Amino acid sequence: MELEGKTHHLRHVDATKRHKRYHYENNVEVFMFTRVMRPTSPAVLNYCKDHKCEVPPQGAKRNEYRDLWVERNYVRVQQAMPTVRRRVPILGITTAIFTPLRNAIVTLRDKNEEIKSNMLQARSSDEPNDLVPLTQSLSGVIDAAVAGGIANYIEAFFDGPYLKTMPQEEKRIATFKETLEAQLEILSKGLKVFHSKLNQNSKLNPLFQHLQASYSKMVVQLAKGILKKDVKIKDHF
């Protein structure tokens, strides 16, 4: 959970999703719920007024990244949960508005953590079913990126008026690029784990070949479109 710029201490720990969930869901004092808002909602307009910016124009074609504003509400309780008490008093509620670019960074980080957890699960198990979450994660990210996800990022934050209307977001561009580069490295490691399991199920080889080729395209698209620099692909296979 990202709370006022803070991240959970387990975010950078290599552990399976099962192990992380145990710590995420025990001894909890802060809960969060979110609400998606329209760019024209009063809360968004007030945010832009306070930060001396303007809501980026939506344009003729909707862009899911550019138009995604989220209100995150953090509820702090008096006693850590779970507990034997039926009710626990609320100490306070904090509300934060997440801009489209900040949402994109959080989404990328969460997806990176998901792939890492699935990768560890697949690597430490010989059960065929334990490979499924990893292949689904890899396919979901790589295929979506090549099929238009990267182009949507460029249209949302780089080619359009986003940074002109919201200059305070300029400081997050470097973090966004770093998170994308980290994702490329994680995907590469995930493909390496997938490749190491092919001897257990040769029927998955066409899927691996497809993902490997699409990953190479993804790297080229990111290098030319967003990162604006050469990205070296290590030959893991």
Task: Give a written overview of the molecule.
With 237 residues, the chain is α+β, with helices and mostly antiparallel strands. The chain has helices at residues 17-24, 42-50, 100-123, 132-157, 162-165, 170-196, 205-227, and strands at 28-37, 69-81, 90-98. It has a three-stranded antiparallel β-sheet with strand order 1-2-3. Helix 3 (100-123) packs parallel to helix 6 (170-196) and helix 4 (132-157) runs antiparallel to helix 6 (170-196). The longest helix has 27 residues, at 170-196. The relative contact order is 0.12.
Biggest β-sheet description: 3 strands, antiparallel
Helix content: 40-55%
Distance between the termini: 34 Å
Order of helices and strands: HEHEEHHHHH
- Overall residue-averaged pLDDT value: 88
| pLDDT < 50 runs, ≥5 residues | 1-6
Count of discrete alpha- or pi-helical segments spanning 4 or more residues: 7
Structural class estimated from helices and strands = alpha+beta
Query: What is the 3D form?
Result: flat
Strand order of the largest sheet: 1-2-3
Q: What integer value in Å does the Rg equal? A: 20 Å
Q: Which percent range describes the beta-strand content?
A: 5-15%
The number of E-state strands comes to 3
